[in-house]
Amino acid sequence: MTAADDHPGIVGTGTPLTLLMAWADEGDTQAFAARLAAMAEVRDAFIALHGDLGAGKTTFVRHLLRALGVAGRIKSPTYAVVEPHEAAADGVGWPVWHFDFYRFDDPREWEDAGFRDIFASPGLKLAEWPEKAEGVLPRPDLDIAISSGPEDDARQVLVTANTTLGAAMLRRLAAADASSPSQPNQQP
How far is CA 23 from CA 31, 131, 171, in A? Predict the structure, then answer.
């Protein structure tokens, strides 16, 4: 993990924690999603996903939702803005909300659609294109920035913890990556 000076700090630590990874292919995306899904903390986390069109944000969300036991079709909420899901990990159901703010352009929609209530309620919230809803979204526990790598399927991924919950999750992810030879790009 490495501290980044240009991001707001985690409460009590002064600087945020980050983890830089390389995903060589979709298998790495799926493996990371499975590690994240295995954490109990994910049930009430807010994860913001950043990246250009085609970077792999929705693919990552689909793998994460599958790892959480979501059955049925998982579609992108590009036009609906939000898609609700029911996770079924460990035989217990709990809500997951997948947002795509790509077409979001009116802050009044935030209140009218009840998004404030959704973010105040229990459950995992995943948001693609969070910068389109800047100013109304709460601070995410984790920011995941995905960018295309030099190879077609390769991705560079920067995970940043912004809260105490996010920091706990990131430390566990970093520990798992440190013990995995397939993730050599973790920064000290």
Answer: 9, 24, 19
Question: How much is the pTM?
Answer: 0.83
| Rounded CA separation 120/116 (Å) | 6
The amino acid occupying position 107 is P
H helices present in 40-147, as ranges: 57-67, 107-112, 115-120
- Neighbouring CB atoms inside 10 A of 135's CB total 7
The single-letter code of the amino acid at 61 is V
| Interval 82-107 mean pLDDT | 86
Residue 112's pLDDT is what? 81
Q: What is the Cα–Cα distance from 106 to 135, expressed in whole angstroms?
A: 11
Tokens of 27: 């298998």
Contacts of 57 (CB under 8 A, 6+ apart): 49, 50, 51, 128, 146
Which of the four pLDDT bands, split at 50, 70 and 90, describes residue 60? Answer: very high
| Residue 136, token pair as written in the block | 């109304």
Q: State the Cα–Cα distance between residues 133 and 129, nearest whole angstrom.
A: 8
Q: Is 161 within 8 Å of 17 (Cβ atoms)?
A: yes
Compute the distance between CA of residue 49 and CA of residue 37 in angstroms, rounded to an integer. Answer: 16
